[in-house]
Amino acid sequence: MSVEEKVKENPVEEFLRTDRLPHVWCQGCGIGTTVNCFARAVRKCGIPLEKLAIVSGICCTGRVAGYLKLDSFHVTHGRPIPFATGLKLANPELTVVVYSGDGDIAAIGGNHLINAARRNVDITVIMLNNFTYAMTGGQVTPTAPYESINTTAPYGAYEKPFNLPHLVASCGAVYVARWTAYHVVQLTKAMVEAMNKKGFSFIEVISPCPTIFLRRNRLGDAIAELKFYKEHSVIKHGADTSEVGWDETRPDEIIVGKFVDVERPDFIEAMNTHLSKRLGDKYVWWGKK
Amino acid sequence: MAEIKYTTADPKGVLTGVHYMDGNHAACEGALAAGCRFAAGYPITPSTEVVERFSVRIPLVGGVFIQMEDEIASSICLQGAVWAGLKAMTVSSGPGISLMQEHVGLAACLETPCVFVNVQRGGPSTGLPTLPGQADMQQCRWGSHGDYEVIALSPSTVQECFDFIIDAFNLAEIYRVPVFFQMDECVGHMTEKVIIPEADKIKVVERRYTSKPPEEYLPYKPDPDLVPEMVKAGDGYRFHVTGLTHDERGYPVINAQAQKEMVYRLVEKIEKNAPKIWKFEEEDIDGADVVVLSYGISARVALKAIEMAREKGVKVGRMRLIVVWPFPEPRVKEVANSVKAIVVPELNIRGQIAREVERIAEGVCKVVRVPHAGGTVHDPEQIFDAIMEAAR
Amino acid sequence: MATAEKTKKKKFRGVVHVLPERCKGCRVCVEFCPTGAITMSDGFNSRGFHYPEFTYPEKCTGCELCGMYCPDFAIYGYREKIGEGE
């Protein structure tokens, strides 16, 4: 940040419901770190605060909506994406961000994730991946690495984990990136780009869960994990998303970067274009022309 | 307190004239007349025609239809649309309504004004997709977990599919509650004359938006009628709502006291306002020996049985529930006190409404169930026999 | 609140603020401060966590990474023009 842009209070402060602090997240949890990035991204993206809505589901990350001083909706487990879809379609002037965890978005909410990407609904999904259901004590998720220990995979996970950037890219998402909680500057930039991107944008954030996932898998504390991200991340912008997943318990390479940034008409644009072509003057255009 | 603001229908959505259409189409037209500008749905027999018509009509009216990936998504997508400022509904039947139940609870908890249309079919499970039932009457009241109340209406004619879905939308706005429109396959697929009035003859209720500035506004501080004022996303209130138990600020509070305050208000805002919500039709109750109490298609079939019984000299009165929940307890109690028996025909086998009548009658009169497993309607003879038995 | 010493060459100095009561003692700010300007205090906050201190103001560049990393919104940094705010 340049001298001219200097700030004298915590830049995250104006976005927080400070009367609710301290928050529920554990010591060293990466969620708060990403909220710092989000606050800075909101400052930079130029979107008026009153036109920015945030939707979370049920999980540790789902609590983000409750701490952000925006129009914020904490809905049911797995369903923030369809709620966000309704918000965005009903008022196209809103910028709508879904901020939730891997269990919420990819497991119970997986059907909504792929369909929103396919429809190219103009929302941003920020999905924190801590590889476990942390809020309920550490059950196995569809993102859990092979052999990782979870309370419902006590002898180690043996299902293939999702490669989520590849999944959403294959469904038609127009912006797909992955960063870790270590990459705060890049993550902030990605959030700005995603929020300003027209269409379905998706950011996977690999994030430490010291209390549950790291402890149970004997991986150390948050600092150890952030150092692991630092040492093992490889930035590959435009990487073939089919190659960014990992099957190893602990990958040698965590491929991060901006994988997809393409143009495609979003849901509302496609609807307006198509229906006005078919119905002519009889069609009532939806949103600003 | 936010005044309840009545206005007249937006002419863009009103297809004024005399029509010949089925109940599903009429329900769609009623929704459009009521100001519904967003529907999210998923195909399911026998309800699909409602959203099919909506998808034809809404591009010409101004609004959005989206076919979601499942009923779970539909039932929350519409709530997003409501919080962005539109009136919205979803439409389904049997299995679809079962899938939606979690979001009925969410709507009750967030106090999202919205309408769930249920064109009832036979169940359980996939059951009878193309044939009628009235076996979801308790489900619509208790289907989601936890303590809450809903409002439910049940039309008997195609005209009522148009007229009463407007009431459903209006009640949703007044009380900020999910409202069930409990049709059935017969009413949905029956074709009759429907008169759609001019827009300025149709009363619609506007959302009870607050006039308070953001710094004074509390999302769940109730007005004296126990209903809080609303805001929508994008207006600068930067408010929070959650499906967790919450306080007046909308903040989660996980303790017994907050739970007590919240669920009592959610229930009492319907219970205490019930006299303003009840709606039923009566005929010849005074001096009757037997009253036939029913709703939906069964109330219509009962008309023939009532006529047959009257021909035999039995004094038969008639009570038809239009608003089923909240249940008109005081009136049913009065009727129970004045007659020998209340006969309750309905398309379910263990008396989903009859047991409510029994509970209220407390034994002061006989309550005769006329059960039916669904798949078709009662033979009027069955109801006639029940009336004659009850009159003895 | 700590203040930076004036240096002759710099037009600005880095400043770090700590809100000890929000801190959960994860030490991420100390570990990832590029110049080692922050250390953990021996003191405890009311919930019994050690919290960071701005021990070496002269090392601070005001890069703000501490604030970016802090999961608890308990620390933040910025750059201040020399001569400002006194």
> Rough shape of chain A?
globular
Largest sheet of chain A: 8 strands, mixed
Using only C-alpha atoms, the radius of gyration of chain A works out to 19 Å
Distance between the first and last residues' Cα of chain B: 54 Å
Tell me the count of domains of chain B.
Answer: 2
Percent of residues in β-strands of chain A: 15-25%
The end-to-end distance of chain A, rounded to whole angstroms, is 36 Å
Individual helix count of chain B: 13
Helicity of chain A, as a percent range: 25-40%
CATH topology of the largest domain in chain B, by name, is Rossmann fold
Strand content of chain B: 15-25%
| Largest sheet entry of chain B | 8 strands, mixed
> How does the helix and strand content of chain B classify structurally?
alpha/beta
Oligomer state equals: heterotrimer
Form type of chain B: globular
- What radius of gyration of chain B results from the CA coordinates? 21 Å
Discrete helix count of chain A: 10
Largest interface: A-B, 41 and 46 residues
Number of domains of chain A: 1
The largest sheet of chain A has its strands arranged as: 2-1-3-4-6-5-8-7
What does this structure look like?
- The complex is a heterotrimer of chains A (289), B (392) and C (86).
- Chain A is an alpha/beta fold.
- Chain A contains 10 helices and 8 strands.
- Chain A has an 8-stranded mixed β-sheet with strand order 2-1-3-4-6-5-8-7, sandwiched between helices.
- In chain A, α7 links the parallel β5 and β6.
- Chain A starts with 30 loop residues before the first helix and ends in a 10-residue tail after the last helix.
- Chain B is α/β, with parallel strands linked by helices and 392 residues long.
- Chain B folds into 2 domains: 200 residues, 3-Layer(aba) Sandwich (Rossmann fold); 111 residues, Rossmann fold (3-Layer(aba) Sandwich).
- In chain B, strands 3, 4, 5, 6, 7, 8, 9 and 16 form an 8-stranded mixed β-sheet that branches.
- In chain B, α4 links the parallel β5 and β6.
- In chain B, α1 packs parallel to α6, α3 packs parallel to α4 and α10 crosses α13.
- Chain C has one domain: 2-Layer Sandwich (Alpha-Beta Plaits).
- Chain C has 86 residues and is mainly beta.
- Chains A and B meet through β2, α3, α5 and α10 of A and α2, α3, α4 and β12 of B.
- β2 of chain A pairs parallel with β12 of chain B.
